[in-house]
Amino acid sequence: MRHKVDGRLFGRPANQRKALLRGIVTSLLEQQRIETTVPKAKEAKRIAERMITFGIKGDLHSKRQVLSYVTDRAVASKLFSEIAPRFQGRNGGYLRIVQTRQRLKDSAPMAILEFVDYENVKQAKGKAAKEEKASKKTEKKTEKKAEKKEAKK
Known about the structure:
Elements: H1 14-31, E1 33-37, H2 38-57, H3 60-69, H4 73-86, E2 95-102, E3 109-115, H5 118-152
Antiparallel strand pairs: 1-3, 2-3
């Protein structure tokens, strides 16, 4: 029996298991939402929430702890500058697991692992992108008008 033995082994050696989870957590922090199997999502959630807690603390030791686990420096800086401030007043529970389907190939249960405020962030990014497109269109129109005026002179 596995009394008081924590964590899932995924049928892999320790180094492969650690690399797998590091990759999943890094992708999650980069993409804000990933799809994976339910056991991998549950294990990655434990680690990712710890990384977000380090991001909220924000001191030097926390940055070193995150950089020792996350494989990409840009993702680590994104964690401290964008992700952690969103959860500043929250005491845990930063991620949600939504079970979605059975994978066709092996019938593995699949799940989406995402931040609890993912929909709000997605909508805000969408609005910002629309506004940016609109501003670019107006700039192009004004440039064309200016070119036409110069051509007439």
